[in-house]
Amino acid sequence: MNDPSDKTGDTDRGPVLRVNCYAGHRADTEPRHLQFGGRAVAVTEIIDRWLDPSHRYFKLRGDDGGIYLLRHDTISDSWEISLYDRGCRSHTCLEP
After folding, report:
1. What would the DSSP string read from start to end of 65-94?
2. Is the pLDDT of residue 65 over 80?
């Protein structure tokens, strides 16, 4: 059964990041919504994803036009924003 889940990450480097996820038919969790610093961002596209032994990474486009690189620590089940780009400069803009 496909169950949504709500994951919260807290780091010493910034505000609490809440990531609402959805587990698909293979039980792989994908971020759907982000909440941090009073902002709510819906994920409009998962641009890329990759794994390392203890982390999962997601490169996302938000409904605010921003590009987010999220890191999910699979051991502690915590999330953090590793990179954010507003996507408004020509040399960093990702074409849809």
Report:
1. S-EEEEEEETTTTEEEEEEEE-S-STTTPP
2. yes
